[in-house]
């Protein structure tokens, strides 16, 4: 009994047991990092006081990078986290994540485990990392190619260096990007298993000492409920691959949300934000123009703001 109370106190000292476990779950499986970041920044800067002081942040795919930015700032520094998201996506180019192999796509196809060289992504993740530890509970999901299993890294369970490896692996979309070796695993993005991780976020809240009815979840994802139709006739292999991930992410998102509602009926799934309009596709992964990135960011902000306003109006 006392041990349990002391444990809970110790945990609450670290993360603040404020009566509610606030979760931000960021999805992967698409290239819509800037859209997600726009939506997250709108949540961080427009929700009523305290409602965006997330205790638990999970990310998959490109969502793992957005999640790590949020989790690098302590509760109370939501505006700073939003500013960092904006500066990151403002200066984003493909070279933030990858470059061509010497020998180009042929090298990627024949001699490497992915079509592009992601040493740049590894450096980017390192440069975004907090100096000593994450300031909020962070979890990221990967897929192990050897077992097919889902491998989840969380910031209370592994070292900062291993978390960075987990984020790197989580953002490594298979085929396009090479696999990441970790321990006995060969990891790629978790988005091929679950495009958004609600289950581990709920488990994290339980581990932090909260009850099911104290959990509030905000989900942000890059594919809408209505998948926009595209003219795929002229698609090249890379575009087909990215389109496949998008379709998969969309299906998996619906499944995960429905399962979560079924498994945890008392959890409040307060906001689920996804693109309400079609956005431009690219020939090469993440190869958006500054105008396209700005458009994604703005749609993310607008979609989140509309939801916040209608929710507040009906409360
Ligand atoms: C976090 O990691 C630790 C150590 O691996 C593990 O015991 C714990 O269950 C994990 N928590 C979640 C929610 O995955
Ligand atoms: C999705 O598409 C259906 C049928 O085309 C339409 O009735 C519905 O309003 C759309 N939902 C959203 C959120 O756009
Ligand atoms: C989206 O793509 C179309 C067609 O290539 C282009 O005309 C338009 O300017 C793009 N949108 C933005 C915001 O750049």
From TrEMBL:
InterPro entries referenced in this protein's UniProt entry, alphabetically: Acyl_Trfase/lysoPLipase (IPR016035), PNPLA_dom (IPR002641)
Keyword Amino-acid biosynthesis: no
Pfam families: Patatin
Recorded superkingdom: Eukaryota
Signal peptide: 1-16
GO BP terms, alphabetized: lipid metabolic process
UniProt xrefs under PROSITE patterns: PNPLA
Keyword field: Lipid metabolism, Signal
PNPLA domain boundaries: 24-202
Protein name: PNPLA domain-containing protein
Taxonomic source organism: Stentor coeruleus
